[in-house]
Amino acid sequence: MISENFLDLPPLLSACGTVTLPGSKSISNRILLLSALAQGATEIRDVLLSDDTERMLDGLRTLGVGVEQLDAHVFRVQGCGGNFSVKDAELFLGNAGTAFRPLTAALALSGGHYRLSGVARMHERPIGDLVDALRALGANIDYPGNEGFPPLEIFSATLSDAARVSVRGDVSSQFLTALLMALPLLDRKVTVEVVGDLISKPYIEITLAMMARFGVNVSRDGWRSFTVAAGSRYVSPGAIYVEGDASSASYFLAAGAIGGGPVRIEGVGSNSIQGDVRFADALALMGAQITMGPNWMEARAPLDGKLKAINLDCNHIPDAAMTLAVAALFADGTTTLRNIASWRVKETDRIAAMATELRKVGATVEEGADYIRIAGFGNEDLGFRKTGGALPPNPKSKILNPASGIDTYDDHRMAMCFSLTAFGAEGMRINDPGCVAKTFPDYFAAFAGVTQAVPVIAIDGPSASGKGTVAQRVAEVLGYHFLDSGALYRLLGLAAVQRGIALDAEARLADLAGQIDIRFEGADIWLDGAWVGDELRGESCAAAASKVAALPKVRAALLARQRAFRRAPGLVADGRDMGSVVFPDAVLKIFLTASAEARAERRYKQLMEKGIGANITALLLDIRVRDERDTQRSASPLQQAHGASLLDTTALNIEQAVQEILTRYQAKQR
Asked: 425-482: per-residue pLDDT in tens?
């Protein structure tokens, strides 16, 4: 269930299927800029369409570069050889580090007056080490805001003839990438020395590979220095493809390892130039079964069903390592992820953000300057057990669904990583899910495509149609949980009467809905610790329920309570809104009805069997009045939900109605 500000992921049973990955953000933005700096036109296929690549495309167009979109993911860029036609421009680059850092270097060495800015978080991400290196080459760059941080103002300058320049390697590999990509603009030999340990080395490998595709080969002395030869020029390769995003593959591979699998990823594999493909090796260390080919990878749960904690240096997979932090929840033991200092200067302080959100779901977490340590709940506590080929979560799962949901800090990877916590018992709420647009706009649809949620059968219908009895019998046959949503409203009405709260006091009733203690045990129902039986089924409770159920704030207050009933192995939910608002993704939706006369007769027999006096004429009148009220009310009127199938039980007994629903459900399972 999604709104403007959050996405409710249902509790997940298993994961299985195939995902074709979108193009890599890192490769897309590198190729776009190199195409602009090259001689000739370049056709780029499988370009990622996301916020970050849009920032690069907008920037290039602002600089006068010819950019033509030929198809959904195909662009033709007319190279300018580094001589941008627009010499005075202002560029807004959002929070796209893969656009901001390389464009800074290219513009500083190409001549012109440019102002570069981004969102507030980009202005908190350091860039001083790159600027210092560019100044050593003679670039003229000012900080309009805080020293060492964007925004930047670049002025045309007489560049020096320096043959060597140094840059720190232990803050962000994007500084070295930016320098290397811009140096061919100088038309002379320049060596870049790396100060300190170089982090995220695989991203430098991507940079070098892409530069080579455009005709510039960089010589190197290990990871200590890199030399761009005099006379280096970028030349278009004509056409080039963007690999699938290996970082995005991590979420689906982890889903396969946690949810049984197999989950297959297409678009990246053993032939990839991206370092994040080694995330698969880390999952294998945790016990997952991994197979791969040149352009695909596949993950399954461990043979024994138990993921194991690991202690890993993650310098080589800094982005994908975030997925390991969440996967660690499902492992036996304590996982330590080391050498991840670069997390501190990403879209958010990812170490702090990850620790905060993991604690929200109940984990014990320790964080340091360059590490994070997570105590896993273990497979036994999470209750992954093979049942009918699926791996349902234990209803006693220790993963909590925080009332406030998971905050994502405008960081796409936080949102995608924490989608995996939906394998807990209660699903998960992800706040600001739209932040995935930075790299994977369709992520949640793709994730839903390979995960199987706890199934729901939603049964609705008019009063006295027998839907409650039928729904409960269906649940018993299937071994599923049962939700009588009408009972929730009757319980609220009863609690209101007991407390002397008027049945039209909407605000007070909504508050009460969140406070009362409700417990279902089979056919027994408890309110505030006291058993309530026939009293709840009485006409006065039914009338009170009809009144409070018409209040929008009351329905909203009970929404979360109803969704919490969705637990493995499945749920049969009876009542209004079940198939439209509460569980719109229900596997089967039934609108169960019968003639008013048949319903009155059934209610009469039910009351007489309980020794309760009744008048069938009065019951028929009451049913017709209630039908009229329920169909006309503004809040959740009685109507057949979209996608629901009609089941008229006028001529059916309970057993026949139950069997018909089971038959329809089995047909849905095929």
From this structure: 889 999 999 999 999 999 999 999 999 999 999 998 887 778 888 999 999 999 999 9
**Residue among 330, 351, 310 nearest 255 (CA):** 330
Q: Dump pLDDT digits (tens) for 342-376.
A: 999 898 999 999 999 999 999 999 999 999 999 99
* Amino acid symbol at 590: I
- Residue located via tokens 């057949």: 640
The three state secondary structure string of 175-206 is HHHHHHHHHHHHCCCEEEEEECCCCCHHHHHH
Q: Which residues pair with 260 in a beta bridge?
A: 15
Copy the structure tokens of residue 634: 């503004």
CB 354 within 8 A of CB 346: no
What is the distance of C-alpha 151 from the center of its chain?
Answer: 30
Catalytic one of 8, 46, 52, 319:
319
Q: Which helix (H) or strand (E) holds 213?
A: helix 201-213
Residues with Cβ within 8 Å of 639's Cβ and at least 6 positions away in sequence, in order, are: 631
- Greater confidence, 607 or 411? 411
Determine whether 631 is exposed, middle or buried from the number of CB atoms within 10 Å of its CB (0-12, 13-18, 19+).
exposed
How confident is the model over 555-568, as pLDDT tens digits?
888 888 888 889 88
Are 354 and 314 contacting, i.e. CB atoms less than 8 angstroms apart?
Answer: no
- Which among 406, 444, 442, 449 is positioned nearest to 424, based on CA atoms? 406
Residue 319 annotated among the catalytic residues of the structure: yes
What structural domains does the chain harbor?
A: 6-22+252-452 (3.65.10.10), 25-229 (3.65.10.10), 456-669 (3.40.50.300)
Q: At what angle do helices 246-259 and 443-450 cross, to 10 degrees?
A: 30
Where is 412: in which H helix or E strand?
helix 412-418
